[in-house]
Write a structure and sequence with these properties.
seven-stranded mixed beta sheet, alpha/beta, about 15% strand
Amino acid sequence: MVQDSNNDSKTKRKRKRSKEKKSTEKVITNEEQKQKQQQQQQQGNGSNPSGKKKKSQEFCPFGNYRNYYGYRISNDMDEDPRLKVLKKEWFQDKDCLDIGCNSGVMTIHIAKKFGCSSILGVDIDSSLIEVARWRLRNFVRTHSSTKTDEKKTGADGETKIGSEETKDLFQVVTFQKENFVQTRNLDENRYDTILCLSVTKWVHLNWGDDGLITLFSKIWRLLNPGGIFVVEPQPWKSYEKNRRVSETTAMNYRNIVLRPEHFQNILLDKIGFRTVEDLTSSLSGASKGFDRQVLAFQK
């Protein structure tokens, strides 16, 4: 009987310790949950211990800015100033490629203004490609609804719908996610006109001089004989501003030998383009920081 009593006493003490332990663990768990919730609320409210608001910075190592055209085109502009220096004969009934198309604004406007047979916009950022596809759908829907009431009478007396001007842009404009420097998906394609507008710096910073030469060589190879390459290189001072967006860009910046002022000679003497035309003098109305040289090379 004494032994049974001792066993009962030990069992009660174990149960008591177990309850105390669970209670302690529960208190700790609750405390941790409270701290976690407070941290989440601070992050959600954008607060920090110092009470100062941190300015959020967009991380765009490839120049894949979400609001790029918001920076580029001011409110008093009806269209991108670069459209005014492009020649219709480079695009009308031509197969075209827009490298680094971002959200597709320029791509769509070129197709609409100049009447491309086809134009493919490629960008390294899949989310921007989705925005470009949405923008295309929205553009077609908006312009179709505005034109359906504008009826035209042809020479044969037949009534024609004005929305024909859109020429079903869905069949003309396409967007595709590609890293142009590295992809092999476009190797079999051929184009009459290729655009590379404000892209060379990002290729250069991320893949160095070798990447830049690959870019130029690939463009030359994809162009049909007599084809046009329109390029808008960023100046060297622009490289310095963005050299620290990643470790890769910082390293490549230090090793770059081929400066933007050398591009014209590289494209003519090393890549093999026959002629070059400087379109910059006709360019007017560009926003501050975007008044860049625009060159057109012929294969």
